[in-house]
């Protein structure tokens, strides 16, 4: 079981942890238990509703499982993109909380540029 995180984590620290998680997922080719714990702590620190947390954790689990089980490259990359999308939604939610309650689409447009990030991820994947 993971240690509980409190809401006292400064928003900038939460965003830094989530950005680090996003970067790790974008280039991850193997699964490390220690990094998995860090990833889950970053998600738990986001202080979001249980349904959103569950979706993000499921996407991360599916992606890591595809790597561990040596699934086809296309399946791994599809799950990577799904995981990146889930992390981007978490980042947007945290940013919307920090920006005074802007809705997620506004936070995405103003802050995280999720579409640009996903496009960059697809470009990296296609070069592999």
Give a verbal description of the structure.
- There is one protein chain.
- With 128 residues, the chain is an all-alpha fold.
- It has one domain (11-127).
- Helix content is 77%, strand content 0%.
- Helix 3 (50-68) packs antiparallel against helix 4, helix 4 (73-98) crosses helix 5 and helix 4 runs antiparallel to helix 6 (114-127).
- It is globular.
What's the number of structural domains? 1
Total count of strands: 0
Find the structural class using helix and strand composition: mainly alpha
Calculate the terminal CA-CA distance, rounded to whole Å: 36 Å
Number of H- or I-type helical stretches: 6
Judging from the principal axes of the Cα atoms, what is the shape?
globular
Q: Helix-strand pattern, N to C?
A: HHHHHH
Helicity level: over 70%
Into which percentage range does the β-strand content fall? under 5%
Question: Any descriptors?
Answer:
77% helix, mainly alpha, disordered N terminus, 128 residues, globular, 6 helices
Topology:
Blueprint: H1 11-27, H2 33-45, H3 50-68, H4 73-98, H5 104-112, H6 114-127
Q: In short, what is this structure?
A:
This protein has helices spanning about 10-25, 35-45, 50-70, 75-100, 105-110, 115-125.
């Amino acid at each position: 079981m993971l240690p509980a995180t409190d809401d006292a984590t400064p928003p900038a620290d939460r965003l830094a942890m989530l950005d680090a998680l996003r970067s790790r997922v974008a280039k991850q080719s193997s699964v490390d238990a220690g990094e998995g714990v860090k990833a889950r702590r970053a998600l738990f620190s986001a202080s979001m509703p249980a349904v959103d947390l569950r979706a993000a954790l499921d996407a991360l689990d599916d992606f890591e499982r595809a790597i561990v089980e040596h699934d086809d490259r296309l399946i791994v990359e599809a799950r990577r993109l799904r995981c990146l999308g889930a992390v981007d939604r978490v980042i947007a939610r945290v940013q919307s909380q920090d920006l005074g309650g802007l809705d997620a689409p506004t936070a995405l447009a103003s802050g995280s540029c999720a579409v640009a990030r996903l496009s960059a991820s697809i470009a990296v994947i296609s070069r592999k």
